[in-house]
């Protein structure tokens, strides 16, 4: 039984022990080491993942070979190539481990099953998907309309612990700025 998953779900809905045991039975444990890939471009994506421990990044590589960091996922976050998962198409992203990770995975079939059987779980995943959509929209708007300094300040405000876990090069890439610009901004703060 995953205490972390139960606690995470119960931030939104309450579950009896029996309800949680049934839901938990639809998840499977997965362990990966630092630098391993969880998902690679052009793969079929059959699972979404809940992070028990560790840190991952999702990236997109354009036709010129430039890599863009789309998102991070750390403890108590969900990650997958959601477009591939929900639309049954191949992945357009790579998801790799920045640290050793412990994950729980759930298949589309099992996700649909528990959501169809449990209003609580349907509500939970609707809330998680909505909050993920809002966060993604905020990220896009930030990239489009704020200065590098403002993006760096937002990053530090929203993810204060992340700066200690990843290199400045990775943070700069996530913010869409050069490593040198990030160094200047860090020195000023």
TrEMBL record:
Residues 11-114 form the Cyclic nucleotide-binding domain. It comes from Pedobacter jejuensis. PROSITE patterns: CNMP_BINDING_3 (PS50042). InterPro entries: cNMP-bd_dom, cNMP-bd_dom_sf, RmlC-like_jellyroll. This is Crp/Fnr family transcriptional regulator.
């Amino acid at each position: 039984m995953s205490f972390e998953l139960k606690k995470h779900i119960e931030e939104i809905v309450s579950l009896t022990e029996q309800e949680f045991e049934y839901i938990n039975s639809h998840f499977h444990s997965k362990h990966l080491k630092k630098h391993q890939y969880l998902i690679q471009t052009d793969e079929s994506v059959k699972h979404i993942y809940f992070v028990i421990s560790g840190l991952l990044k999702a990236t997109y590589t354009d036709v010129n070979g430039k890599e863009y960091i789309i998102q991070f996922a750390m403890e108590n976050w969900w990650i997958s190539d959601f477009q591939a998962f929900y639309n049954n198409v191949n992945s357009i992203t790579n998801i790799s481990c920045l640290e050793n990770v412990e994950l729980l995975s759930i298949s589309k079939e099992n996700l649909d099953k528990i959501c169809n059987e449990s209003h609580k779980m349907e509500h939970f995943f609707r809330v998680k998907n909505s909050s993920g959509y809002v966060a993604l929209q905020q990220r896009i708007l930030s990239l489009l309309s704020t200065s590098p300094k403002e993006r760096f300040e937002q990053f530090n405000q929203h993810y204060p612990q992340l700066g200690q876990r990843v290199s400045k090069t990775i943070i700069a890439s996530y913010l869409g700025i050069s490593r040198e610009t990030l160094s200047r901004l860090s020195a000023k703060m």
